[in-house]
Amino acid sequence: QGPSPSSTSPSSPSRQRSGSESLQPTSPTHAGSQAHSGDVGRRTSVSGRSVDFPEFLRIMRLIFDQDDEERLERERDVVKEVGFSREEVKEFRRLFHQASFDAEKRLAVPELEKLIARVMPLTAAMTQEFKEMASMVTRVGEEEALDFGNFLTVMRTILDRNWHNINEASETLLAAAAKAEAASRSESRAESKVSVMSRGWSKLTVSKLSMLAKG
């Protein structure tokens, strides 16, 4: 019995072409173009960082400027809504920026709790209540940070509600601060008067001693 046709039949033309193409060396021109394109890609990836960097910065500035404008617009809307005076908003902004350590100038709720605790002591129950209230009126999660608009909203809420008599606590604190400031000014004036009297007494003493010495 002879060999089967499949074992002796020549390979198909397509398979021959495939094999020849896989074994065919790459032409110098093709290899050169591949090397050139790879070289250009590398140059672009390296030099692109310096060539395109100014434009990249410009785009990022535009994005940040747009974010700032949107944030400022939200803040303006909140300022109109809460009804604080211009001076009050200015003081609140100064306080907000002093207390916020976030790179995006936001204030974490725990930091705001520390500010409230300087006005009046907070129990654990009051702290939890404050977190829930702040989250409800700002629609910001308890673990998230507040922007200035959120901060104003929370301040307006606790003042309007007189949350745990915070208004009375604030007035007591302000009265104590004013009293301490007045005492400090009075002490400063007294020290200044004593200093003037001491200098005058010293001059008078020196003058008398000089006259006695001459006599």
UniProtKB/TrEMBL annotation:
Ranges of biased composition (kind: Polar residues): 23-36
Segments for region (Disordered): 1-46
Renumbered to this chain, the Low complexity biased-composition regions fall at 1-22
Q: What is this protein called?
A: EF-hand domain-containing protein
